[in-house]
Amino acid sequence: MTNLFILFVAAFLLPLMFHSWRVAVFGLGVQGFVLGLILLATHEWSLMLFVEAGNLFIVRAVVVPWLLFRSMGDVQLEPSFSLIKKSFSQWLLAFIIILTGSIFGRFMSPDDSIQAFQVGTAAIAILTGFLILANQRHVIGQVVGVITFEGGLTLVELLSKHAIPLEVYTGISIVFILLVLTLVDFINKFKITSREDDLLEDGIVL
Predict the structure, then answer these.
(1) What gap in Å lies between CA 75 and CA 49, rounded to an integer?
(2) What's the domain range around 78?
(3) Residue 191, pLDDT above cutoff 90
(4) According to the model, what pLDDT value does residue 143 have?
(5) In a domain, 133, yes or no
(6) In a domain, 206, yes or no
(7) Total domain count for the chain?
(8) Which residues fall within 8 angstroms of residue 62, CB to CB, at 6 or more apart?
(9) Which of 25, 36, 60, 34 is nearest to 132 (CA)?
(10) pLDDT band per the 50, 70, 90 thresholds, residue 78
(11) Pick from 13, 34, 47: which is nearest to 170 by CA?
(12) Which residues neighbour 151 within 8 Å (Cβ) at sequence distance 6 or greater?
């Protein structure tokens, strides 16, 4: 179980080290897949589990990355793209986020080191999503930040002992899908705007 949480942390922290939006989007898919594995390892089989597993394994792990890759197409951002600025202050802030999340987990579960690590992982994911958003001007980076943040919230829900009614979870899933479609629409509009700016720079009047 602990290995799954370590893998989840790696899925949203390792992309911070790369100048590649493709690695960042791939990391989102890994996050969804690992969340599905965590779900299966912590919950008993039921109709609700089947619905949640379908959402995590199909929508988050496959559909979301596919939509983002498809929307971005052959856009070349490397080596200028980065989820956070490659500076000492930003890496220090990332370290503080990891430390803060770990302390928060200890505070919430002082008598259970495993549970403290799990809660800390969720907190670190949420704070990392905020960190990415604070550093991003490019729409794909903002999308990665939003979904990383949302993935942390999803992990909080998976760790909760209180089951969400199927109707409520269905509504949450629909909202998430609408959110992803909205983000994809933003990406497409950004590409159109960027293409128009390039044409204007080349002296072509639209």
Answers:
(1) 37
(2) 2-201
(3) no
(4) 93
(5) yes
(6) no
(7) 1
(8) 29, 32
(9) 25
(10) low
(11) 47
(12) 12, 28, 31, 32, 35, 60, 125, 129
